[in-house]
Amino acid sequence: MFNIFKKAAFTVATFALISSVCFADQAIVIKGSTTVLPIAQGTLEAFMKQNPGVQMSLSGGGSGEGIKALIDKTTDIANSSREIKKEEIELAKTKGVNPVAHVVSYDAIIPVVHPKNKITNLSIDQLSQIYQGKITNWKEVGGEDLKIVVISRDSSSGTFESWDHFVMKKAKVSPRAQMLASNGALATAVAKNRYAIAYLGIGYVNKSLKPLQVNGVTASVQTAMSKEYPLSRELYMYTNGEPVGEVAKYLAFVKSADGQKIVAKEGFVPLVDVKKLGKKK
Questions:
Q1: Residues 115 and 195 reside in one and the same domain
Q2: Which stretches within the chain are classed as H helix?
Q3: CA separation for the pair 52, 227 (Å, rounded)
Q4: Residues 6+ apart with CB under 8 A from 261
Q5: Residue 58 located in a structural domain
Q6: Is residue 2 part of a domain?
Q7: Residue range 146-173, pLDDT digits in tens
Q8: In whole angstroms, what is the distance from residue 43 CA to residue 32 CA?
Q9: Same domain (yes/no): 253, 226
């Protein structure tokens, strides 16, 4: 369904790629969303090969942590799977920081279950009721008589906040839900549990999981780009003001044809059609 590479290792520990300090003339620090992490890692590797004098480091921690680091001036780029909040912008301004958004990819948040689960489609309302704890058995939505194990991202995650926006609409997630810190952790948990449901960015869906339709629409590159799929969103990299120097060069590379081919390779949705990218030399 998607061209996907497993990225669980990057959700467990900080990932850093550093060129020789002796020859590095500028360092770029990138922090934030674990959803955006594979995109950042893939493009970072390619950019450093082209620019061996640049030192770069990359870590996860969640969208909220990345934006906090931008506001605290401890990162050059904040990866985020959600838009920056009004209150975050106001706080940034008090510290002399001007967050500027750079859309680097499209994404689809996909509900996933164990491959043995017979369910193929859920409505947004059904998803909301499952996550609120109002629907607790798969038989209530046309499945087997099995208890539902609800798994969610933690509240520092941009994906959690996107799920709240699209699905929960400010309703509270059940206190019985398991809250995990990364896409990789959710994918592993569902793959091992026949009763479970979780939600992931498109780049983390793999053969050990069964993606569900939402409101009868299948998530795909095409439906995410057109936003026909109801849980489609943008993925961001934020900078303090308009980027300059090597940061500007890196972001230009991410949005370039070569950078967007890496986005597609990592299983995410590029800013332009993959077939069109393939024709560019």
A1: yes
A2: 8-12, 37-50, 63-71, 86-94, 124-132, 158-163, 183-191, 221-226, 245-255, 257-265, 274-279
A3: 38
A4: 270, 274, 277, 278
A5: yes
A6: no
A7: 999 999 999 889 999 999 999 999 899 9
A8: 15
A9: no
d(C-alpha 37, C-alpha 63), whole Å:
10
Beta bridge partners of 53: none
What is the CATH number for 168? 3.40.190.10
Q: Both 117 and 224 in a single domain?
A: yes
On whether residue 48 sits in a domain, the answer given is yes
Amino acid (one-letter) located at 59: S
Token pair, residue 159, equals: 């994906």
Q: What is the pLDDT of residue 18?
A: 39
Q: Is 8 exposed, middle or buried (0-12, 13-18, 19+ CB in 10 A)?
A: middle
Residue 7 has pLDDT above 60, yes or no: no
pTM of the model: 0.84
Angstrom distance (rounded) from CA 215 to CA 236: 26
Q: Which domain holds residue 177?
A: 107-232
Instruction: Indicate the number of domains in the chain.
Output: 2
The tens digit of pLDDT for each residue in 96-115 reads 999 999 999 999 999 999 99
Residues 36 and 121 in one domain: no
Domain-located, residue 1: no
What single-letter DSSP state applies at residue 165?
I
Distance CA 47, CA 259 (A): 9
State whether 29 and 44 are in the same domain.
yes
Residues 135 and 227 in one domain: yes
Q: Tell me, yes or no, whether 96 and 164 share the same domain.
A: no
User: What is the DSSP secondary-structure string of 32-51?
Assistant: E-TTTHHHHHHHHHHHHHH-
Residues 62 and 154: beta-carbon distance below 8 Å? yes
Average pLDDT over residues 188-209: 96
> How many Å apart are CA 246 and CA 48, to the nearest integer?
11
By C-alpha distance, which of 235, 234, 154, 169 is closest to 199? 154
DSSP code of 154? -
